[in-house]
Amino acid sequence: MSFLIRQTLxxxxxxxxxxxxxxxxxxxxxxxxxxxxIMIFGAFMGVMFVRVGQMWGWTQAAKAATDWVGLxxxxxxxxLFTAACGALFAMLLAFAAxxxxxxxxxxxxxxxxxxxxxxxxxxxxxxxxxxxxxxxDAASWFMWKKxxxxxxxxxxxxxxxxxxVNKVYPATYVCILVFIVMAVILYKTRFGxxxxxxxxxxxxxxxxxxxxxxxxxxxxxxxxxxxxxxxFVYVMTTANCTSNGDVAGFGFLALxxxxxxxxxxxxxxGAALLFxxxxxxxxxYTTLDINGDGVYMLKDLGINANFYxxxxxxxxxxxxxxxxxSSRAPKAEGIPxxxxxx
Length: 342
Hints:
The chain contains 15 helices and no strands. The protein is 69% helix and 0% strand.
């Protein structure tokens, strides 16, 4: 059970963060279908940051610190860097949607097509192969282990320790903290109220002196920052800091989580845990010991492996089919703002 909870969090937390990224954009009035592309770009830039850190000796300097804090600080710097890169990439969508008044659905789709092509081009240019990876095992660098807390190899921590400390990435908890802070900003601050008003009735917001253009830029840039960070955390925790122009459709799953969660943070957190659970089952069903009794029940069922791989996406379709009609999107999302139409 500890393994199931731990792995579910690994998949659910980036999904939760990227879904909140979509909320920020859409609450400001911009449809951000480019979450997948921004995640791919953020993942690439994060892996590149770690790779450059290796070349320049940053990771070695972090390892030489008195404890593991140095490496965790390096991971935090990588997360901040990928957030900045995601925000920069999202500005392409903001410029097209706000200044050029282009169709936001087409703009987001274009960025989703651009990101993997650009990333693969850069990977071929840098590494002369289709995958950009680091030298070594990032899991051993950025993961907590019980030995760090004085436990021997054969010793076991208590249930809480095994579930939430041993073999857990601190980046997971950083993402949860970022999610909480950004949700509070969106729903409990003046800035959040103004941002949401621009997605509901931009004409009324403008009449009260709110700069709709600036607010929509802010919403899209924050959305890009969260999605870029989520992309790097995803590949760091599930792919050993490897970038290949793909994040397994997590950006589209995040859109489904956002709609299922009805654009509300608490609902999104619950939906992300649900989808993260199925993603966990798909990725580790052969080693999943649910009861801790040494029996791998899902493996012993004899079901084809492809069934488990497609399970998260089938669940997504089923959930959206039953919940999308009751979802309430911001009224002005996707509608270019024309100041003269008041």
